[in-house]
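Class, discuss our next protein.
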Amino acid sequence: MRTIVAFLLILIHCAATADQVNIKGGVFTPLYGSAKKPVKVDSFSMDVAPVTNAEFLKFVNSHPEWSKPSVSPLFAEAEYLHHWSSPTELGPSAIPDGPVVNVSWFAAKAFCVSKGMRLPTVNEWEYVASRPIPGADVRKVILDWYSVPTPDVLPSVKSGLKNSSGVISLHGLIWEWTLDFNSAMVTGESRADGSLDKSLFCGAGSASAADKSDYAAFLRFGLRSSLKANYTVNNLGFRCVK
């Protein structure tokens, strides 16, 4: 009997994590922060791919307070989910397995919480994003993506490249929200908590960066520093971790 129960528990666990991969903790050096010293990242699990339109539609249907007509302007701009045909229909501009975009940080966070998860921290996201992509140059993949306009209809979340951790489309499909996006470039001084460190921007920023040649990472940190939690952007989505 105990064997059967244990087997069932294993099946339940596998089903719950089928769309996630386990990320073993470790140490890495982020572009900014910690005086260019390596930081420790604890083990966690991450969604294999970004959250899709179909998944977010299911969430909206069960949490109508996050539908376009109901969401407060404090939590999402007017462009929130504007690429959907209606509050409860995706339409031709939002394929079911395409990444959901035009969602605010508040909405992304609420979705993850509804699943018993959360958004990844900047360090967690960057830690996984630093993993190699077999057969490809990660930085070239990113810079090639930066050089082309966002398509009117985003392709499937499974269309991107898979890195060595088994995570798909971290680069080359969309930008992604992080839990602490607005702390990516804070000063870290108690007298100025929440203030951006102006030395991290533009030319001055490279002087304090761990890798001055990582132009792709500069752009990611630059984007994060420009965001507000209620912003909705046509190539900004998210994935969850736990």
